[in-house]
Amino acid sequence: MTTSPASTSPAAPDVFAKVRGHERAAILAAAREADVLPYFRTLTSPALPVVRMEGAERIMLGSNNYLGLTGDERVMQGARDALETYGTGLTGSRLLNGTIPLHLELEEEIAAWMGTEDAIVFTTGHQANVGTLGTILTVGDTVIADSGDHASILDGCLLSRAKLRPFRHNRLDKLEKALQRSATDGGGVLVVVDGVFSMEGDIAPLPRIVELCRHYGARLMVDEAHGAGVLGARGAGASELYGVEEHVDLRMGTFSKSLASCGGFVVGSRDVIEYLRISSRAFLFTASAVPAAVGAALAALRVLRSADGPALLQAVLDNARHLRDGLEALGYAVVAPQTVGGDIAAPGVVDGTIVTPIVPVLVGDDWKAALLWKALYDGGVFVNTALHPAVPPGGALLRTSVMATHDTAVLDRALDVFAAVKRDFEAEHGPLPGPGA
Ligand code: PMP
Fold this sequence. Notes:
By secondary structure, the protein is of the alpha/beta class. The protein is 39% helix and 16% strand.
């Protein structure tokens, strides 16, 4: 297959023209040439606290495996049992030949965990957002979304053809303005926010958002992808942490993070979830999640809901605080622990503050972030890199994240690498942003 012009007509523009001379491709090529490309590196081991990547051992500080359950024997067994019983794939939609009892058990268990009437399982978290927003919203409605919301939320909003009113990240004054303006739009209004934002790791101020939605008569959806399995006594997410679950109309989550698998879910009232089951195109017109993925997610959820769950929730948040404090002590620019209010008692809350497992390190310049990433990688630490357009221009981050199963000695080894890398990097390239930047 080639990308040579498909048409003989000189006037017809070529849809492939955009793939040539693409700015993003040029940047990737330059980074690859300098061997500092932080993307598409290959793992050759399970996604555990220490992994093998490209022939060397690296401490994994770039995973969403927050509870560290991807290698847990109970979760592996759940996947094996499902594979043995139902085979490798179901080759059909949930509507037709793609539903096995495990899908239904998983939906029931998720609804019980989240305390809702019903739950629906999608094949990925991305599809859960697209398939919910694209179905529940329609032309004439308004959707108000935080500018930091995940791409799948934006995709769902755009697909729905509802009027999109974005507001500046976590700025409640802007949210309120958008709610006021929507009053004259004429349709239903939905506010959608991430509970924990995926790049910066900060938590949406849900109590105030709930108040605003109630005041202006808007529905609220919270994406709990990074909050589920992490925040609150049951690990049900930011809505649980803040005690506002009952006031959140729809909550979405994924299996691709704490639940150690792949897939997504949405919970809410029975009528809305039933409507999604018969109307959501991203649910109906795609093959259902493969048995091993469903079996693993179900087993991971059962671990979280077992007597072992609280210790895992405590461990991931303790590890996050340990890494954050260590990075700050080394002079890196890391966010301060977030104030959640003195009356909240939940794993990880210390003096009314909390740190999520996502600990971003601000670097600023994209190229410097790539160089720093490479130095850490060569030192044996893998972190994620968020460059523009994933973050605003000049806001490049190294996105570090921890698991419940990182032991302190491993995190301290990583911090030693961060210390040495910073010394060498600053000697050559000048100072990095410091705490408070
Ligand atoms: N929402 C958020 C906030 C996410 O970070 C992600 C994945 N990174 C998704 C949704 C999509 O989830 P999945 O990976 O299961 O498709």
